[in-house]
Design goal:
The protein is an alpha+beta fold. It has helices at about 85-100, 130-140, 155-165, 200-205, 210-225, 245-255, 270-275, 275-285, 305-335, 340-350, 355-370, 375-385, 415-425; strands at about 15-20, 25-35, 35-45, 65-70, 75-85, 110-115, 120-130, 150, 170-175, 180-190, 190-200, 235-240, 260, 390-400, 405-410, 430-440, 445-455. It is globular.
Length: about 475
């Protein structure tokens, strides 16, 4: 990279630089983490990515962690609750649940998810999803930088509010207003859990147009409802501000419409914190190893510093794959003799080929229809087990087409296990729920159980199961 000098030993190794794009300008900030606190070392403006991180300031060192901010308006967020389960089982359940909610085929979407603090017997999970093509376009755009991490701007907003705008761990909605849009972040326990972008910013609001004001209030009320609150008065709203008149007006309008809105200034009145709030927040997210971040780029982007490790790890499997493919190719050439080619030609020219092709098309259409209505069995289990609170804990979940679904877990008492069986049996899509075994553990005193059941046509043999 250009303009990067060797590290000065007097500078902490816990420094992070982040760059964010705001309209046609670039904003950068360098942050140092000291224990649990953050210090902003500098903030800079820029016009081009070609100079790399070092183009913003000659204090950039080769050991500084480097991050770039992704403008996240196209990212969709989901908030779900899952029953307790062992780690491997839990990850599988979340993945299937996420895929069932996606608006596009899974091969066109990238996801990231984060587990939050447990509530009762349920585990809240935040899921972020975005189009893979838009993520790849962004990777190409920032290629001159080669950052180690890519941070969602929603996460940056939540973090900077918590650290520099007197935020706390209570549930709150945090608004970051730009000229053309308003980013709305739902924050709980200091972390982002939901987010959405409204297409009304300070420019439209500054005209004092009554229709614009009414639409902004209406849109925000819809967001409050979408986030699960019955009334705007329930959840506090914080509009990040530098003290400008227009942001104060927005706050007043919301309060007059029944919201609980305030406009906090940065700590110590440092207005630069507001101007550079996005790169500052992103640098803190990247530097804070104590909190997990939503890395939606993890499957399609390898940050600088990880590429060599990734190359070494992937080299051997790639070589073995090439060798295996070559061997398979030779075998296939050997097996495909003149006689077999003649049989194939005869089959293709036979009278049944059109009927076979039509049958293939029918089956393919059935598969497509089945994909659109994929069984959402995990959500069903979550709804059922939630009534058992802490009594039921899942430890295994196994399903294969045409075979009974197997659920393993533990229960505190026999009564809880039988109630769980009864609730499963009462669901219209579930049948033949049987407790295969129930043994009490001598140490934990909990009951280890195995339950078998049928679900729709997924577990039954015959033509109906072929579409799944």
């Amino acid at each position: 990279m250009k303009n990067v000098r060797k590290k000065d030993q007097s500078i902490s190794s816990l420094c992070t630089i982040a760059i964010a794009k705001e309209q046609e300008r670039l904003l950068a900030a360098k942050v140092r983490k000291n224990g649990g606190d953050f210090e902003v070392l500098w903030t800079k403006d820029g016009q081009s990515l070609q100079g790399g991180f070092g183009g913003f300031d000659d204090s950039v060192t080769e050991d500084d962690q480097q991050a770039v901010v992704f403008e996240s308006s196209g990212v969709i967020f989901y908030r779900i609750e899952m029953p307790q389960a062992e780690t491997e089982v839990f990850e599988k359940m979340v993945r299937v649940q996420a895929e069932s909610k996606l608006p596009l085929p899974t091969d066109e979407i990238e996801t990231a998810w984060r587990v939050d603090k447990q509530i009762g017997g349920q585990v809240p999970v935040t899921i972020a999803a975005a189009r893979k093509n838009s993520l790849r376009d962004f990777i190409n755009e920032i290629s001159p930088l080669e950052p180690e991490k890519i941070i969602l701007d929603y996460e940056a907003i939540a973090k900077v509010w918590r650290e520099f705008f007197s935020g706390n761990n209570s549930a709150a909605m945090v608004l970051s207003v730009t000229d053309n849009c308003t980013k709305v972040c739902m924050v709980e326990n200091g972390q982002l859990i939901r987010a959405v972008s409204l297409n009304i910013g300070s420019e439209k609001f500054s005209s004092a147009n009554t229709e614009t004001t009414r639409r902004f209030v209406q849109d925000l009320a819809g967001v409050v409802e979408m986030f699960g609150f019955e009334s705007p008065k329930i959840i506090p709203i914080f509009i990040l501000t530098d003290g400008s008149e227009i942001l104060n007006k927005m706050t007043d309008y919301l309060n007059s419409a029944g919201f609980r809105a305030t406009a906090p200034l940065p700590k110590d009145g440092n207005i630069d914190i507001y101007k550079y709030r996005i790169p500052i927040g992103a640098a803190m997210v990247a530097a804070d190893d104590s909190q997990e971040w939503l890395d939606i780029f993890k499957n399609i982007y390898i940050g600088k510093g990880k590429k060599k490790e990734h190359l070494l790890l992937s080299l051997k499997p790639a070589c073995f794959a090439c060798i295996a493919a070559a061997i398979l190719f030779v075998i296939m050439l050997y097996m495909t003799d003149a006689a077999s080619l003649a049989r194939i030609e005869k089959k293709l020219s036979g009278p049944d080929i059109q009927a076979d092709f039509q049958m293939l098309m029918v089956k393919q259409n059935l598969k497509k229809q089945a994909a659109l209505s994929r069984p959402n069995f995990l959500k069903l289990l979550k709804d059922i087990s939630s009534s058992g609170k802490d009594g039921i804990k899942l430890t295994g979940f196994d399903f294969k087409r045409t075979q009974k679904i197997v659920i393993t877990g533990t229960a505190q008492q026999d009564k809880q296990l039988y109630e769980f069986q009864k609730k499963l049996q009462s669901e219209k899509d579930i049948s033949e729920v049987k407790i295969q075994s129930a043994d009490k553990d001598s140490k934990s005193k909990r009951i280890n159980f195995i339950i078998n059941l049928h679900y729709r046509n997924f577990t039954k043999k015959g033509l109906e199961s072929l579409v799944f």
